[in-house]
Amino acid sequence: MEIIIKEDYDQICEEAVTIIHQTWKKKNDLVLGLPTGRTPLGVYNRLIELNQNQEIDFSRVVAFSLDEYLGLNKDHPQSFAYYMEKNFYRHINIKKENIFRLEGTPKDVDRHCQEYEEKIKSQGGLDVLILGIGRNGHIGFNEPSSSLSSRTRVKTLAEETVEVNSRFFENKDEVPRFCLTMGIGTIMESKMIILLASGEDKSEAVQKSMEGPVTASVPASILQLHPQAKIIIDQKAASRLIRRDYYQWVYRNKERVSDFLERKKTISD
Ligand code: GLP
């Protein structure tokens, strides 16, 4: 797990986009897992810009949605399908057939979830999954107490998540109570995970997830077990980290480590 602390929201988006861009350069048919929410918007905007400047081409890229509200169809303005279309897909040259979504109104929910898992596998698995984090430490819609090996399935939203997300609806009663989400087991199979967090209101969840015990009570804590998890956060989200100085020290020395290893290799060659 690599914890990257940047000054502010713009910088965390910049860092995430640089990583995605570099990964795409090595594999043009990148398989992405993508979240909704406020946090990834800056990443989507920068990727759109890169696409319009022809610095990144999405024609071979495949995208999977991380989660969806159950009961909202794709034309509902608060559905995640609508969000992804409005904020990202319609602005880039991704092919329609390469966009995979969890349906808000599937005929057979269990079957739909099962097929979603199979589709991810048939694409060779996720290469990069971007995540936000809930104030209670949820990832996707895997609320506290979700099994750490869960697969894509139906979940009941925690009351606090309903509360937080009610800002997007007329009132709290309009917020769906159920959702579909990639499971924690599904998330953990992504080759790389980038978790983004910005702002003071995420600092407690960030501290517990990154420095506390691995526990189903804080779903994001499972990322401590992922070999390629990059936690990109701003100063405010990092404000409660106990070992904040150490993470910054490691990051500052990152390039020196590669130089050092490179020099050692040249000498022994
Ligand atoms: C939602 C989503 C998550 C998202 C989280 C944080 O409930 N299901 O995928 O990461 O909330 O959202 P935001 O980035 O708006 O804080």
CATH fold-type name = Rossmann fold
Write the CATH architecture name.
3-Layer(aba) Sandwich
In terms of DSSP E residues, the strand content is 15-25%
Number of strands: 10
Bound small molecules, deduplicated: 2-amino-2-deoxy-6-O-phosphono-alpha-D-glucopyranose
Q: Could you name the ranges where pLDDT drops below 50 across 5 or more consecutive residues?
A: none
Instruction: Determine the number of helices (DSSP H or I, runs of at least 4 residues).
Output: 9
Give an overview in words.
This protein has about 270 residues and is an alpha/beta fold. The protein has a single domain, classed as Rossmann fold. The chain is built from nine helices and ten strands. It has a seven-stranded parallel sheet, sandwiched between helices. It has a three-stranded antiparallel sheet with strand order 4-8-7. α2 links the parallel β2 and β3. α1 packs across α2. The longest helix has 18 residues. The protein is globular. The structure holds 2-amino-2-deoxy-6-O-phosphono-alpha-D-glucopyranose. The site of 2-amino-2-deoxy-6-O-phosphono-alpha-D-glucopyranose has 14 residues, from α5.
Features:
single chain; Rossmann fold; 269 residues; 9 helices; globular; binds 2-amino-2-deoxy-6-O-phosphono-alpha-D-glucopyranose; alpha/beta; 3-stranded antiparallel β-sheet; 7-stranded parallel β-sheet
